[in-house]
Amino acid sequence: MIEFDRVTVTYDGATEPALRDVSFTVPEGELALVIGRTGSGKSTLLRAINGLVPHFTGGTLGGRVLVNGRDTREYRPRDLADVVGMVGQDPMAGFVTDTVEDELAYSMESLGVTPDVMRRRVEETLDLLGLADVRDRALTSLSGGQRQRTAIGAALTSHPAVLVLDEPTSALDPQAAEEVLAALQRLVHDLGVTVVMAEHRLERVIQYADRVIEVPGGSAAVSTGLPAERMVTAPVAPPVVELGRLAGWMPLPLSVRDARRAAVALRTRLGEVAPLRPLATTGDELARCRDLVVGYGNVTALRGVSVSINAGEVVALMGRNGAGKSTLLNALVGIVAPRSGTATAAGADPRRTPPSKLVKAVGLVPQEPADLLYAATVADECAGADDDFRVPAGSCRALLNRLAPDIDDKMHPRDLSEGQRLCLALAVVLCGAPPLLLLDEPTRGLDYGAKRRLVEILRELAAAGHAVVLSTHDVEMVAEVATRVLVLAEGELVSDGETATVIAGSPAFAPQVAKILAPLPFLTVGEVATALERAS
Fold first, then answer.
1. Is residue 279 part of a domain?
2. Separation between Cα atoms, residue 185 and residue 370, nearest integer Å
3. Which residue of 149, 165, 273, 410 is 20 to 30 Å from 141, comparing CA positions?
4. Using CA atoms, how far apart are residues 65 and 48, in angstroms rounded to an integer?
5. Could you tell me if 90 and 204 lie in one domain?
6. Are residues 376 and 487 in the same domain?
7. Residue 475: pLDDT above 90?
8. 70 located within any domain
9. Alpha-carbon distances of 142 from 122, 326, 327, 368, rounded to whole Å
10. Cα→Cα distances 197→167, 213, 429, Å
């Protein structure tokens, strides 16, 4: 179905190819998982499948890519639309209509599908992806996860033979991600659709993959293989695999179910050892909401939320897509106005605080990091942040190097990968070291290495007396860094407590290690490694 034959892609002005001499084949009816570090070239590989590379991106394509017998050098993306459905990292960039239902129908209209078939497929897709309750909503009013599901649905309605997905679950809550992945499984197994997916959250998808395509970046060769074989040496691996490596299990388990079967002896060894967790030292109150109510038109996003955030805390906001997490962050920086109740940051009403003063007290990295980036190059962006926050020259660049090394100073921010762009936005905001740091989905597009480096930075900030609030669906990130978890549902605060207490027993929010070792109270592979050293 898909064949790469000695493919090399070089973008205009680049000193090195983004992909070099890539050859592999994906047969019909397989799910191929593309893995690699942030910025390694995964998105370039995906875009070559539907002709976006080079017809839209420019540059030079050497070798050839065949999709269902069509050479993408000769067929432009519009000529492949009946065969390939594509969902990029930024759903809003691909939308062409105003409402959910119209977006689902658009691709079928372009292909001349009859109205009765269009209606049936739209209804099937609304049910399949849980979008029926937002079918008439404006796309701009949706949460990030709802937008992502709409983008996936828009690609599915035309019934493509090949579906290409770039980070399809990055903005989805665990339950929504499972529903999307289950739908993809049905497409692959029952309808013979070929799915090629790039995803950093391997803990969600590795057990479903038929093959793994590893894109290491640089001059290293792209390689393929069976998931269990690739995970033995892969530099990026989910916690279930990391735990298997630590325990010496062979073959390595790819699912929680298989890992629980292998973990009987490990649970016995750990039975008398408690995990070591540093105690959080909290200080003054840095943010407060009291009976906060926020709405958008007829939709009430927050319903009487009361919460206090103190210095030294790393607080995770969790909940389903559309639960009100982003709205709470936006209220703390004054982007949205309360209908009633109050939201204060650094002791002041953010809507009545001059921006020049507010930015020194509160920093927000939004879901769309490009909203913070305006300069023509990475170097200019970093230099501007240094000047704005009056810190020594090179401070922002040093933070960027910690998060994502090897980003070229001369690149335009829009030419970066989604993960690299997020790292740049994080570096810009972190440069100011605000007392209160708000992060909205801060791990979208980040590989495991980048997430580990971000965790280190957030821990340093908390130890220095800053408060961090992160809205996220990344339960593994929460297990690593959060000292406290708030769970929102339908705009209401339904849970507030220590991380281990809130997430360990939750079917939706428990990390993989907690599920594998339950009822033992371990959350991360690091905690297990430390406990084994103490037990030996």
1. no
2. 32
3. 165
4. 7
5. yes
6. yes
7. yes
8. yes
9. 18, 11, 12, 13
10. 7, 10, 31
User: Could you give the CA distance from residue 166 to residue 29 in angstroms, rounded to a whole number?
Assistant: 18
Q: How far apart are CA 146 and CA 132, in angstroms?
A: 11
Q: Which residues contact 396 (CB under 8 A, 6 or more apart)?
A: 381, 382, 383, 385, 386, 427, 428, 431
Do 387 and 418 form a contact (C-beta atoms < 8 A)? no
- Residue at token pair 């801060």: 442
Structure tokens at 423: 């790292």
Q: How many CB atoms lie within 10 A of CB 372?
A: 19
Q: What share of the chain is helix, strand, coil (3-state, %, to 5)?
A: 40, 20, 35
pLDDT digits (tens, 9 = 90+) for 386-430: 999 999 999 999 999 999 888 889 989 988 888 889 999 999 999
Q: Which amino acid is at 76?
A: R
Written in H, E and C, the secondary structure of 16-51 is CCCEEEEEEEECCCCEEEEECCCCCCHHHHHHHHCC
The DSSP secondary structure of 168-194, one letter per residue, reads TTTTS-HHHHHHHHHHHHHHHHHH--E
For the stretch 40-74, what's the b/e string if a residue is b when 16 or more beta carbons lie within 10 angstroms of its beta carbon? bbbbbbbbbbbbbbbbebeeebbbebbbbeeebee
Q: Do the Cβ atoms of 419 and 200 come closer than 8 Å? A: yes
Identify whether the C-beta of residue 239 lies closer than 8 Å to the C-beta of residue 66.
no
Say if CB 152 and CB 160 are below 8 A apart. no
CATH number at residue 388: 3.40.50.300
Residue 89 and residue 94: Cα distance in Å, rounded?
9
Tokens 């790819």 locate to: 254
Q: In sequence order, what are the residues at sequence separation of 6 or more whose Cβ sits closer than 8 angstroms to the Cβ of residue 26?
A: 1, 2, 3, 32, 194, 196, 211
How does 260-281 read in b/e, with b if 16+ C-beta sit within 10 Å? bebbeebeeebeebebeeeebe
Task: Say if residue 304 is in the same domain as residue 251.
Answer: no
Task: Give, in order, the Cα–Cα distances in Å from 335 to each of 48, 165, 294, 331, 350.
Answer: 39, 32, 11, 6, 8
Q: Cβ-count burial of 401 within 10 angstroms (0-12 exposed, 13-18 middle, 19+ buried)? A: middle
Q: Express each pLDDT in 222-234 by its tens digit.
A: 999 999 899 998 8
Same domain? 352 vs 427:
yes
**pLDDT reading at 445 higher than 90:** no
Q: Which position has the higher pLDDT, 404 or 196?
A: 196
Same domain, 301 and 340: yes
